[in-house]
Design brief:
Elements: E1 2-5, H1 9-20, E2 26-29, H2 33-43, E3 55-58, E4 69-72, H3 83-104, E5 109-112, H4 117-128, E6 135-137, H5 140-155, E7 162-163, E8 167-168, E9 176-177, E10 183-184, E11 187-188, H6 195-206, H7 208-212, H8 221-236, E12 240-249, E13 255-266, E14 269-273, H9 280-298
Helix pairs in contact: 1-8, 3-4, 4-9, 5-6
């Protein structure tokens, strides 16, 4: 069973993908019970014919007890004055969720989707003491998808023609697109753009959410699909290499911080942390990104 904590736009989009593909049973958990039940009733009509999957909604955390995977998409739902106030409120929320998960289903694999992603992934793992390979923050894969899309628009190409696209570090203003690895029709991207263009693309990726919010309230489908891919990999035990946030213990020269790096995922969660070769500029930017996240954690 897949339990999804939070029945907003992202949580319900993930639930829809899981149910419409008959991946597994889904439980929606929301602080407002009627919201969870209503969304479950709607999504239940997307169950394919001859499928055995089901979806239910509740506000009762004890129902998560048989979960194999728990996805945290919840938000405080409060528009606060500053990033710091938002972070404090979200950290308080994740600590409360952590207590419930530790009580009822500590053996599940946890996917953190709520923001600030890297801070919440770190706090959750430290609060629960669940093995770090089973606490996975999902966001760098979304940033990578945005990177690939922006390159496809710039060069007027299909996204399938662009390979080895990854964004590492913070899911935030210090994220690091890895230009040195990107291939476009088998050509090195760095042979096609100069430093000024790199900086412009980096700014576009970092500000993508702001551009999107000019037209809709928040992102939904991109993060849902990226999260679904990880869920599917775990349930089907199909190994998937994807950038994700994990608490580091020396990898990339960093400790006691969670940030996006390439990992290999299977039925047990993160099977392997992959250390990719970076150029000097990328390595320096990744160090800055790690420290940015660490400073946020230390400010709590």
């Amino acid at each position: 069973m897949i339990s999804i904590i939070g029945s907003g736009k992202v949580g319900t989009a993930i639930a829809f993908l899981c149910i419409s593909t008959s991946l597994d049973d889904v439980l929606l958990v929301n602080r407002t019970k009627d919201k969870a039940i209503g969304e479950a009733l709607d999504i239940s009509n997307a169950v394919p014919e001859n499928s055995n999957v089901s979806i239910h909604g509740t506000d009762d955390f004890s129902k998560i007890i048989d979960s194999d995977i728990i996805v945290i998409t919840a938000s405080t739902g409060t528009y606060l004055k500053s990033r710091t106030e938002m972070m404090d409120a979200q950290v308080k929320m994740i600590k409360n969720i952590a207590k419930e998960i530790k009580k009822y289903c500590p053996s599940a694999i946890i996917l953190v989707v709520s923001n600030p992603l890297d801070v919440l992934t770190y706090v959750f793992q430290k609060e629960t003491k669940i093995s770090r390979n089973k606490v996975i923050g999902i966001a760098s894969s979304l940033d990578s998808s945005r990177f690939r899309y922006l390159l496809s628009e710039k060069f007027n190409l299909n996204q399938s023609q662009i390979n080895n696209v990854i964004v590492l570090g913070e899911h935030g203003d210090s994220m690091v697109p890895i230009f040195s690895r990107v291939k476009i029709n088998k050509m090195n991207l760095l042979e096609m753009i100069d430093e000024t263009e790199q900086n412009l693309i980096t700014t576009e990726i970092r500000n993508y959410w702001k551009s999107l919010r000019k037209f809709k309230s928040r992102s939904q489908f991109g993060i849902a699909k990226n999260t679904f891919d990880v869920i599917s990999s775990i349930i089907k035990n199909n190994e998937l290499i994807v950038p994700a946030s994990i608490v580091l213990n020396g990898e990339y020269g960093e400790k006691d911080v969670s940030m996006g790096i390439p990992v290999k995922i299977n039925k047990d969660g993160i099977k392997e942390i992959i250390e990719v070769k970076l150029n000097q500029a990328e390595h320096s930017l990744l160090k800055i990104s790690a420290q940015t996240i660490r400073d946020c954690i230390n400010s709590l």
